[in-house]
Amino acid sequence: MMEPKLKRTLTAICIFLLALSSCNNPGNRVTVSLPRSTPATEGVDPKGIIDFISAVNNSNHEFHSIMILRHGKVVTEGWWSPYSPSLKHTLYSLSKSFTSTAVGFAVSENKLKLTDKVVSFFPGSLPDSVSRYLAGMKVRDLITMSAGMDPDPTMFIPANDTDWVKAFLARPVVNEPGTRFLYNSMATYMLSAIVQKVTGEKVIDYLTPRLFRPLGIEGIDWETDPMGINTGGWGLRLRTEDMAKFGQLYLQKGKWNGKQILPAEWVDEATTFKIDQAPGAPDSVKGRSDWMQGYCYQFWRCRHNAFRGDGAFGQYIIVIPEKDAVVAITCETPDMQGELNLVWDYILPALRDQPIPEDNASETLLKQMLGSVAVKLPAKGIESNSASSLEGKTFVLGKNDTGMESFAFGFSGNDCTLRMKQNGSAYDFTFGREEWQKGKTSRPGPNLLMTEKGYERQIPKAEVAGMCRWRDTNCLELTLRYIESPHTETFTCTFKGDSLIADREISFLRGVQSSLYSKNRVLKGKVTD
Question: What is the pTM of this model?
Fold first, then answer.
């Protein structure tokens, strides 16, 4: 028996520690990390994961992070430097699965039904003439990508349009809703708008007490339209471990820490086949494609009886129920099917149904590999004496389609600094000589939807990493990674006398360059053609 005095003392200490924890944790928030284990303990062959990492590093897929869960525990995790566990990552269309989840909560709370007509939510935003197909469009048609529009209206919303709901409803509905699949990110935006209409909250705020807080997901952000509606179909940013938690919640049929936070019926409904993306495709073609296994409620069916949320350039949450496994990946790849093939070729066979004998040598090797992974660096540069002649000079850029106005260079030790003026604002960056220098910037980075009005909204300063090298004595290459997104910008600056030619290349537009012609303002102050 514990002595009463000792018991009271321990109780007092516990109360003090809890109070201290609450003081240091505003709002009494709790960040919950997933439990960790070793691959072999959870029946995962570490050699298979080693082969997977080797295949990734020898591929054209630029991985930024990987997290593999088995039986609810993290057995593999890695971030390719300069990416790191604490950084959020742009999810692109993987955001859709979270919007779908918001719809699921709203349905379970009787705030809406999938059979509700879309036009019923926005009587003040309807076109003068409502077609029969538009009048018949249901929430279910939005969530299954069968709204009846063709082409996808996402890129057809005018750049100066402030009312996206009205613009969507004005687009022609040429097919009977519910009959044909057509990927439509604005349909997901409409789901976000409907959730906000019936709950009075943005999707991110509505999900916070229902999803994000129970899972210990904090510090996220989500772009909005000009009216303050979350973009829904894109624009969510969160960490790799948060992605894995979301996948694990769906694997567990909506249960978390023993509590049913999302109805199991919704999970089943949201992740099972609803519409065929390619009804006329032969089985031989479908058997090779993870885009022809059927679409669900903003989730995709996969081969191997799996399902996934996915976003452009290879952002994945893959749930494999038959193996009790979840795989979360952030990446920039030109071949999203090829990225999935690596999962099926290496990770899937490593998920064994029987216990795996401990293999300390392989476990150690895997840890070493994951601890040292890094994105491929530019080739080593040469020594150049040009830095001293460029110090403090500002180059005014000629007319171009980027809004960039001038570059000013500075050099200190192995670092190069660049002050870039663009669209009337000045931005400062530091580039390490063949090493990453990290910083923050309010300058918007490259984005597939950078012409969309939702881009930038509600997004704080971006984390960046810069590296430079001299390609030859008069050619300076500056690599700028936006490390909370998949993308990178490279500026190749060639100097000749008082002139500069700067070629800008965006990673997902590899080979498509924008040339920026300029003349040194310090010397003459005039712009050349």
Answer: 0.91
